[in-house]
Amino acid sequence: MRTLSSLVALVAVVAVACGPKSSNPVTPVLPGDGDGNVAKPGDPPPVTAPDPWAGRTDLLQPPAARAPQPLDLPKIERFKLKNGLQVFVVKSERVPTVSLQLAVRAGRADEPRARLGVASFAAQMLPKGTKKRDALAIAKAIDFVGGQITSDASYEATLVSCSVMSKDLGTCLSLMPELVTQPAFAAGEMPKVREELLAQVRQRLDDAGALAGAHFQNLLWGDDHVRGWISSEQSVAAITRDDLVAWHKAWFSPTNAMLAVAGDVDVAKLKKDLEKAFGVWKATKTPPHPTFVEPRLDKVKVRLVDKPKQTQTHIRIGHFGISHTDSRFFDSLVWNYVLGGGAFSSRMMKVVRSEGGKTYGASSTFDRNMDRGSFVAATFTRSAETVATVELMLGEIEKMKASGPTEAEVADAVANIAGSYALRYESAADVASALLAAELHGYGEEYLENYGVRVGQVDVAAARAAAAEILDTTAFVIVLVGDASAIEPQLKQAGWRYDKVDFRAPIGTIPYEPPPVDPKAEQAARKLLDEALAAKGKKIASMKALKMSAKGEMVQQGQALPITIERVYVAPDKMRVDLTIALSADFQIQISYALDGDKGWSRSPDQNGQMVLADIDPSQLSVLREQRWHDPEFIMMRHTEKGTKVVPLPDEVVDGKTCAVINLSSADGTSTATVFVDKKTKLLVQLAYPENGQVTLDTFDDYKDVSGVKVAHQRKSGSGQDVATLEVTAVEIDGKVDAKLFAKPAQ
User: Fold this and answer.
1) What is the dihedral of CA 402, 408, 414, 415, to 10 degrees?
2) Do 90 and 165 sit in the same domain of this protein?
3) Which end of the chain is less congested by CB atoms within 10 angstroms, N or C?
């Protein structure tokens, strides 16, 4: 039976079934992660009534903006541990909390071309186990004190954070050094992390904005520069445990890291505690950071990414930018704020949205890294307005290059940038995070103190000169992601030369080395899968129909809601699911959907509680068809399908059962799942697969024989904070099924 989260999401009632994502803990905020151009323009402001005070001349005028002043930072203590680890301490007694933020100078920019994603993979594996504690023990230790510990990688660094109440600082001092110096990179945890990374890659196909950003980077930087390398399923699949160990060994050294501590601490005692906690971390020599030859851009390049049936076109326009250390950095902050960085006060927003009526938003930005990075303007519009919108955007860029911002625009930009700067620092942890970012680029606290002052020193002449020098109106790239059938006629009429690619095609030509698989180990894994299929019941392969009923509860935002599910399947492509959710003792809602070949319908309540009957969108039908690949009743047949890849992984213990762990991937690479098979009974214990950008874990127990097929009667499904527990109450195999069940009702 499908997981509850997928059943509900696929019939468009996400509000009922999926609660909000959990908030992220405090993590270091870097100047830029190298991916700023993938962000979508912001949402439109709420509609407001006309201003009754507009045009009045008898009103008091606001005072002139004050000249930006230096930021008053708390005292920052600096010292080095004996092993060379640089430490910054931002002491604050305002609240009894403390955070530790560690930055290792190694991120996506340092990844080998054939191992894209290794930085994020290694970072996410750090909390998954050490040589002393497994993932569960780490989670229990931090949860016991109500703290948070996370690890992730950005473009330039790997970031590890731990926050707790001040009295529990010892927990962070125990866990963080252990994660950083003694990661286990447990093979049993790798499938879960890999599935998460694969889900992110696949989700890009459904996110036109992210897809446009990825193609923009590749088109601008090419296949021979790290910024042009776009991760793929193949690159993620190629990463092995040896790669993670090698990455950690190469870059994780105290002399290649910085630690920021913020909060209510005793600095003198902290020095001793840090020396004791991190003293086991031995300094090693790290390799030089890779360098790349910047590609040439001497003409206009246009790439059309064909995504059929999309009603909007996502647009990216840009060229090479500047580095964070460029002398024109602050000048560029100002002219870019005027151009597209100032949200609804920017020229692009006014022209494209307010005057042109082409879209809800438009923006421009540039990366803030040690290398040059990209400048990019971004928007989206109706397909029919694609070329007209691009021309409006280009027109604003040309105007900015030619004449720059006005004196009034510079004054407004300076006031907004400098005036809002101090609002970034609500806590000592914010100061520590910003300090880490500055230090990564060779700056110190004086950079934070004088940021607003430096912005205030930008005048009209400097902003105009920087815009004229940096903006290029003869050599740039344009990426359009949308329905080619609607866009191509416009491009041809405008006389534009362009290249067209399918949205599912690989981005760039990144070579990869497939993970080595021992033929004997693969043969043994296939044999075990054959045994698992036999244990499940070979009748499953010839089964014509399946009826299944289940009851249980789903937990959403801490609230348990009773549910019942009725599922009917008829080979090869008919299925119906009816879900009932009891919102209270007196009120329940019913949701249904049915598939019949390439057609489908759903019935669910709208926001007013009225039942709505509708055809399932073709894009959702493709999702449903892909999810059949993960069906627990048929997953043990997947290895028998032509082209299915079988990759054996290290054994893992699940609920006290020693399981063989095997990853399965479809021939076209669009579907993947990891099965955990009890080595004793050969029955499926757990199933992991990507879904909606997360990894869903299904567990199975209490198998009973039904007409020669073993069916798990106890099932649990979890994805993020959403958990469903089900008890199968009735199963019928090859019984009579009324064909009318799959027909769309009259109303």
Assistant:
1) -160
2) yes
3) C
Q: Contact, 227 vs 217, CB < 8 A?
A: yes
Residues 495 and 606 in one domain: no
Whether the pLDDT of residue 633 is over 70: the answer is yes
Residue 111 structure tokens: 């990844």
Token reading at 515? 């993970």
108 Rama class: left (phi>0) / alpha (psi -120 to 50) / beta? alpha
Q: Is the pLDDT of residue 82 over 80?
A: yes
Q: Whole domain around residue 626: which residue ranges?
A: 4-19+517-539+547-556+601-736
Residues 6+ apart with CB under 8 A from 611: 603, 604, 605
Q: What Å distances lie between residue 598 and 185, 574, 634, 729, CA to CA?
A: 43, 10, 20, 30
Q: Which amino acid is at 596?
A: D
The predicted-structure confidence for 386-402, as pLDDT tens digits, reads as follows: 999 999 999 999 999 99
pTM recorded for the entire structure = 0.73
Cβ(368)–Cβ(336) under 8 Å? no
Q: What is the pLDDT confidence band of residue 511, given thresholds at 50, 70 and 90?
A: low
Question: Quick check: bond before 572 cis, omega within 30?
Answer: yes
Residue 75 belongs to some domain of the structure = yes
Residue-by-residue DSSP string for 66-90: PPP----PPPEEEEE-TT--EEEEE
Report the sign of the C-alpha dihedral through residues 490, 492, 497, 500, in that order: positive
Q: Please tell me the predicted confidence (pLDDT) of residue 269.
A: 96
Instruction: Identify whether 57 is part of a domain.
Output: no
Helix axes 386-403, 484-494, angle to 10 degrees: 50
At 269, phi and psi to the nearest 5?
-70, -35
Rounded Cα–Cα distance for residues 676 and 340 (Å): 50
Q: Which two tokens stand for residue 390?
A: 């691009």
Residue 443 neighbours by CB under 8 Å, 6+ apart:
none
Please give the Cα distance from 355 to 415 (Å, whole number).
25
- Closest by CA to 161, choosing from 22, 37, 310, 25, is 25
Domain count, the chain: 3
Residue 103 pLDDT greater than 70, yes or no? yes
Q: What is the token pair recorded at 40?
A: 């979508």
Rounded to 5°, angle at Cα 9 from 4 and 10: 105
Q: Radius of gyration over alpha carbons of the chain, in Å? A: 28
Q: Are residues 241 and 379 in the same domain?
A: no
**398, two tokens:** 């040309």
**Domain match, 403 and 529 both:** no
How far CA 453 is from CA of 69, 422, 434, in Å, comes to 6, 12, 17
pLDDT > 70? residue 22: no
Q: What is the CATH number of the domain that holds 454?
A: 3.30.830.10
Residue 589 forms part of a structural domain: no
Q: Is 700 helix (H, G, I), strand (E, B) or coil?
A: strand
pLDDT at 49: 60
Residues 263 and 319 in one domain: no
- Does 117 share its domain with 14? no
How is residue 477 annotated by DSSP? E
pLDDT digits (tens, 9 = 90+) for 647-698: 888 787 888 899 998 988 888 767 888 899 999 999 999 998 877 656 788 9
Q: Please measure the distance between the N-terminal and C-terminal CA atoms of the chain and give it in whole angstroms.
A: 27
- Give the tens place of pLDDT for each residue, 222-274: 999 999 999 887 788 788 899 999 999 999 999 999 999 999 999 999 999 99
Q: How confident is the model at residue 450 (pLDDT cuts 50, 70, 90)?
A: very high
Question: Could you tell me if 382 and 448 lie in one domain?
Answer: yes
Are 305 and 454 contained in the same domain?
Answer: yes
Inside any domain, residue 571:
no
Enumerate the β-bridge partners of residue 158: 104, 153
Give the angle subtended at the CA of 493 by the CAs of 490 and 498, to the nearest 5°: 70
Classify 357 as helix, strand or coil: coil
The structure tokens listed for 391 are 């021309």
Q: What is the mean pLDDT of residues 329-338?
A: 97
**Interatomic CA distance for residues 33 and 108, integer angstroms:** 9
Tokens 């075990």, residue located: 528
What pLDDT sits at residue 187?
81
